[in-house]
Structures are given as structure tokens and as C-alpha cells.
Amino acid sequence: MFASFSYESRSPEDTARLARQLGERAFAGMLITLDGDLGAGKTTFSQAFAAAIGVKEPVNSPTFTLIKEYEGDAFPFYHMDAYRLSLMEADDLGLDEYFYGDGVTLLEWAERIEPMLPPERLEMRLEVGTENERYFTLYPHGSAYLKLCMALRQNGVLQ
Ligand code: ADP
Ligand code: MG
């Protein structure tokens, strides 16, 4: 029940490749959470993911705005950063409107608001290795995300 998948990135371009693979398989209501130290590559991943779903605007770290909304080709794209959020503040933002809406959401520093996260989501944890190495561990919560990870393992993207 606690399947996990891994991906080794050796460059920002490798990180972008994983983001594109997931972006190409995006669906309405998709939620991906990203946790990892500053500089691990969360925003790098988010930018490539956004481009893959057709966002034309530049996507920056939403640390000070908390939530930024963009238009993708088929879905709205919501980029969130919970770094500065307390649980009480998060409660006021009405995040469920986003999580259970028709858009695709990427949430950086998700663990800060863990109790508010929906049960179905793709949890991604990033670890920094030496210099340009980044290790991604993906934990699918729910059958849609499990199928997605299994498909990516099938085609050799994930291990
Ligand atoms: P975060 O949002 O997690 O704080 P960023 O994506 O803003 O991280 O920054 C990651 C930094 O690390 C960038 O400067 C990027 O060029 C660098 N970097 C080096 N190697 C990688 C890699 N394999 N994947 C992602 N970023 C990398
Ligand atoms: Mg960031």
C-alpha cells in the first residue's frame, strides 16, 4: 500500500524531463506536492511542469503570494507555496476550492499544511546530493497516482 518510486536527476534538465513526463499526463484535479530543502529544485520542477501543460507566462516562486493562478492549454494551473503559511492562515485561503477544482495544482512545502491535504495526491520528496544531483522519491496516494507512477516505471522514467 505504501508504494514508492524514485528518480535520479543529474541536472536541471533531468528535473525538467521528469516534470514534462508528469505534465503530459496531467488531469483535472491533479495535485502534486513538493517537499525538500531550499535549492532542491521544487521551483525548477514547477516551471517545467507549467510549460508542459501549456502555461505561457513565466512561473516564479510564489513564496510571497502563496498562490498564483495561470492558464494552461486544457486546465488552469495553480502554483502554491506553503513555506510561510500557518495552518490557520491556510484554512482562510479556502484551499479545497483549488484541490477539488478542475485545475492542476503544484504545492511547494506541502508538509507545512499536511493535515489540510486531500487524501489523493502525488507526494514528491526531493533530496540534494552532490552538486547537481537531486533524488526524487514519489509516493502516490490514491489509485490514479499509483497508475501514473506505474506507467512511468513501465516506460523507464521512474525506478
Ligand atoms: P527550490 O524551489 O526547491 O528552492 P529551485 O528550483 O528554486 O529550488 O532551485 C534549484 C537550484 O539548483 C537552481 O539554481 C538549479 O539550477 C540548481 N540545480 C542544480 N542541479 C539541479 C537538478 N538536478 N535539478 C534541479 N535543480 C538543480
Ligand atoms: Mg521554490
Key terms for this structure?
single chain; 159 residues; alpha/beta; Rossmann fold; globular; binds magnesium ion
Short characterization:
Helices cover 29% and strands 26% of the residues. It has helices spanning 12-23, 42-52, 87-92, 95-99, 143-154, and strands spanning 5-9, 31-35, 67-71, 76-81, 104-108, 121-128, 134-141.
Explain this structure:
By secondary structure, the protein is of the alpha/beta class. The chain has one domain: P-loop containing nucleotide triphosphate hydrolases (Rossmann fold), CATH 3.40.50.300. The protein is 29% helix and 26% strand. The protein is built from five helices and seven strands; from the N terminus they run βαβαββααβββα. Strands 1-7-6-2-5-4-3 form a seven-stranded mixed sheet. Strand 3 and strand 4 form a beta hairpin. Helix 1 crosses helix 2. The longest helix has 12 residues. The radius of gyration is 14 Å and the shape is globular. Magnesium ion (MG) binds next to helix 2. The site of adenosine-5'-diphosphate has 17 residues, from helix 1 and helix 2.
Write the topology of this structure:
Layout: E1 5-9, H1 12-23, E2 31-35, H2 42-52, E3 67-71, E4 76-81, H3 87-92, H4 95-99, E5 104-108, E6 121-128, E7 134-141, H5 143-154
Parallel strand pairs: 2-5, 2-6, 4-5
Antiparallel strand pairs: 1-7, 3-4, 6-7
